[in-house]
């Protein structure tokens, strides 16, 4: 019998079984996230299931991030309900303005190598960058976990993503993710794990890996997972005192396929409206007019992302007339770091609008909504029609640097033209 992938090993450990791809297993959950977009329904299910107390409150986390700030009495009421439940049951709750739940799970050291971490939001896959088996679940799953501490899963097959070489100037992690979406399509990895490997990993910082894991679900993947290394441990140092056991694949692990991507040869990419996998080299979309640029989300709202965008904006002289640049830090920690090193002031001086940490405009539930006919270039992970709250707007997806280049020129532009 062949060896095991990272996902097979983690699910074997969490189920206490010899788990192989295709097996159905019941696993102990290390941490489960719920947001204001999913918890209210989970609380309904919790009551219907006869829930009275939580199996382990320390393993449950709530985040108010989708409706920040709440724009109606209804959404404010959802927040009140979550606060009351969290206080009653001893659940950790990240309140309005603390940031996006996915970013907070990472920052607070709640997703550790070898863990099984889930979230009632599809982009919970983000934590796979830390060597966790991380996946999105539904509200009913969250309710069941709150009561039992367990979840049932089908063990996924794995696709090995081998990265070679090193990114060149003007090319970033988002370009890798979009290139993979271009190769796999929106369902090319359906219910499979993307397991990242290869010598190119040593050149990707933890923030880069978070982008790749985050976008895995846009290819249909169950999860996107990295091996743990010195960068993983360095990021977690000071964020957790909890011991962990990293998981590597066996040398003879079986994969459904392998994709090799040469980072040296990669060029900037952009996803055209209204599909994430409608990806082309950015230069093929050059000169398309842009009226709004959005920097933020659980994909592109970290300090490193804002530094990349700021550098392009500075080199290009700021935001072009007629362009609205909206900046939403992924968390208060990110916002504080931006304020401390001058990045926040730079953005204001260069013509940006600053929005409180949270999901912001990404899902169209709050924040700045684009007008009819507006072309938006965004660091987000989805560009479906109506995604940002207006079905008459068109959303393009690109790296922070490419987004900033569009803000400078008022049209889709290769960032290498501004910062060669």
UniProtKB/TrEMBL annotation:
Stored InterPro entries: Acnase/IPM_dHydase_lsu_aba_1/3, Acoase/IPM_deHydtase_lsu_aba, Aconitase_4Fe-4S_dom, HAcnase/IPMdehydase_lsu_prok, Homoacnase/IPMdehydase_lsu, IPM_dehydratase_rel_enz
Could you describe the subunit structure of this protein?
A: Heterodimer of LeuC and LeuD.
Instruction: Identify a single GO molecular function assigned to this protein.
Output: metal ion binding
The UniProt record lists the keyword 4Fe-4S: yes
Annotated ranges, domain Aconitase/3-isopropylmalate dehydratase large subunit alpha/beta/alpha: 8-286
Q: Does the keyword Transmembrane apply?
A: no
- Tell me which UniProt keywords the record has, alphabetically: 4Fe-4S, Iron, Iron-sulfur, Lyase, Metal-binding
Q: What EC number(s) would the UniProt record show? A: 4.2.1.33
PANTHER family in the cross-refs:
HOMOACONITASE, MITOCHONDRIAL, HOMOACONITASE, MITOCHONDRIAL-RELATED
Q: Would you tell me the protein name for this molecule?
A: Aconitase/3-isopropylmalate dehydratase large subunit family protein
Supply the Pfam families for this chain: Aconitase (PF00330)
Say which domain of life the source belongs to. Answer: Bacteria
Its top-level enzyme class, in one word, is: lyase
Q: What Gene Ontology terms for biological process does this UniProt record contain? A: L-leucine biosynthetic process
């Amino acid at each position: 019998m062949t060896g095991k992938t990272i996902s097979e090993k983690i699910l074997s450990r969490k189920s206490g079984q010899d788990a192989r791809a295709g097996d159905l297993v019941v696993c102990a959950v290390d941490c489960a996230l719920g947001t204001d977009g999913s918890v209210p329904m989970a609380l309904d299910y919790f009551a219907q299931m006869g829930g009275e107390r939580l199996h382990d409150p320390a393993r449950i986390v709530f985040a108010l991030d989708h409706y920040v700030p709440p724009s109606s009495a209804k959404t404010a009421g959802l927040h009140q309900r979550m606060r009351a439940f969290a206080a009653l049951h001893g659940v950790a709750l990240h309140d309005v303005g603390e940031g996006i739940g996915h970013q907070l799970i990472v920052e607070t050291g709640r997703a550790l190598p070898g863990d099984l971490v889930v979230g009632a939001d599809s982009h919970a896959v983000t934590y796979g960058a830390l060597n966790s088996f991380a996946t999105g679940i539904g509200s009913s799953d969250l309710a069941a976990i709150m009561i039992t501490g367990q979840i049932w899963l089908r063990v996924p097959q794995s696709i090995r993503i081998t990265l070679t070489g090193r990114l060149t100037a003007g090319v970033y992690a988002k370009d890798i993710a979009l290139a993979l979406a271009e190769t796999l399509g929106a369902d090319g990895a359906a219910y499979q794990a993307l397991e990242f490997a290869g010598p190119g990993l040593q050149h990707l910082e933890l923030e880069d890996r978070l982008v790749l894991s985050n976008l895995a679900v846009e290819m249909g993947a169950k999860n996107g997972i990295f091996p743990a290394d010195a960068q993983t441990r360095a990021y977690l140092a000071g964020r957790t005192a909890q011991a962990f056991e990293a998981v590597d694949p066996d040398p003879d692990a079986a994969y459904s396929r392998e994709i090799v991507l040469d980072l040296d040869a990669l060029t900037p990419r952009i996803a055209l409206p209204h599909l994430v996998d409608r990806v082309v080299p950015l230069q093929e979309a050059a000169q398309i007019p842009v009226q709004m640029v959005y920097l933020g989300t659980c994909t592109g709202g970290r300090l490193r992302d804002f530094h990349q965008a700021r550098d392009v904006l500075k080199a290009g002289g700021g935001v072009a007339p007629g362009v609205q640049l909206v900046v939403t830090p992924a968390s208060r920690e990110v916002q504080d770091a931006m304020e401390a090193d001058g990045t926040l002031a730079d953005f204001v001086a260069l013509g940006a609008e600053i929005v409180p940490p949270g999901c912001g405009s990404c899902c169209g539930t709050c924040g700045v909504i684009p007008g009819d006919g507006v072309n938006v270039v965004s660091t987000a992970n989805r560009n479906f029609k109506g995604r940002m709250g207006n079905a008459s707007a068109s959303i393009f997806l690109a790296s922070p640097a490419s987004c900033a280049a569009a803000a400078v020129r008022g049209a889709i532009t290769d960032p290498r033209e501004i910062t060669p």
